Amino acid sequence: MAGRPSDTEILEAVEAHAGRRGAGGRPTAPGAATLTWTTLLDFRIVRSLKTHGERPMREPGGRDDIADRPTYTVLDSHPVPPPEDPEQAHSRLLVREGSLGEEPCAGCDGGTNKCGACRGRGVRDCPRFVDCPVCEAGPDACWECEGTGRSRSRRHPHRRPGTSAADRAARVRCVRCRIDDVACPKCRGRRQLDCPDCGKSGQVECTACSGAKRVTHPECQGTGRFTVWTEGWIRHTPHRARERRLGRRDLRRATGNTGHWHENVLRRTTDKLPDDLDESDEALIAPHLTPHKDEVARRATLRRLPLAHVRVHADPHRDYFAFPTHTGIAVLSRPTGERVRHFATLATAATLLVTLVAVLAVVVLR
């Protein structure tokens, strides 16, 4: 149903609803009911505000990427179209005319520097030998000479205490004292092994420069130069405001889901509010329509739903609320405020009485 229903249509809908509930009275009869109107209101506005500024820029590399950006002479008056949707934030980067240039990097030589980790040698010092992982470079490297090459005893190792056949099978000939079945099978009595990293050469490739002796300068990212310019930025930022008068909380779900809200959309600062708007509603909304500084676009949405409050004299404990929907008129009934307060008072009194009885029972039992 479009627009506001007549009072007669509202009373007829209330009478039909009350009849289904079995309530008495005929709201349509003269003087049988009172009807008052109110308007539920949901107003939202989003405006796009333009801000701009300048800043000096310095980035590594050449000017090719920056050179493709649009340029400006006077940023404040540079034409930028407003956003089609003021809800969306937009930004644009510009280059001030004549400010784009390049300068060499003062902290490197063509984008690289001598590697500090290896001092420009490309290699780093490395121990030629590593401790044996089996005997841990200890005296167990050889049962006889302990890896020194000088035997501690002239006795044959086969006759030494604690040298079983299994023990001897796990040992090898020592390369230093040349006695069989006494040396660590890994290092053969030497205590150390050739370094697997440098192959006993004493040098390994520098991991910092991968042997190149030079490293990339991080500040200029290896380009050896910087691009400098004055950057101008223009932003369109959404700013939102709203005013809502949705009535009783216990009616909001029903009115919001099924009510036929009348909607007006204002997109220009010259657009006017509807002529049939109440003075109180207009006073609430009008301040939000005042143009803001640097405003370039807006969208104001005003949604309204007429809501009728009906009191039937023959049914004094119920309030009826009626509003238009897309298919007709919806009617809701709620207990009156006086009825709610009455039952709340009774519930409070009952609670106090039960508490008093409980206290007296405790006193008597003591």
Helix content: 10-25%
Mean pLDDT: 89
Q: Roughly how many Å apart are the termini?
A: 70 Å
Number of DSSP helices?
6
Low-confidence stretches: none
Rg of Cα set: 46 Å
Class of secondary structure makeup:
alpha+beta
Cα shape = elongated
How many distinct beta strands?
15
Largest sheet: 9 strands, mixed
> H/E element string?
HEHEEEEEEHEEEEHEHEEEH
Name the beta content range.
25-35%
How would the blueprint of this fold be written?
Blueprint: H1 7-21, E1 33-60, H2 64-67, E2 71-72, E3 90-96, E4 101-104, E5 112-114, E6 123-125, E7 129-131, H3 165-169, E8 192-194, E9 203-205, E10 214-216, E11 225-245, H4 249-258, E12 262-266, H5 279-285, E13 295-312, E14 318-324, E15 329-335, H6 337-365
Parallel strand pairs: 2-3
Antiparallel strand pairs: 1-11, 1-13, 3-11, 4-11, 5-10, 6-9, 7-8, 12-13, 13-14, 14-15
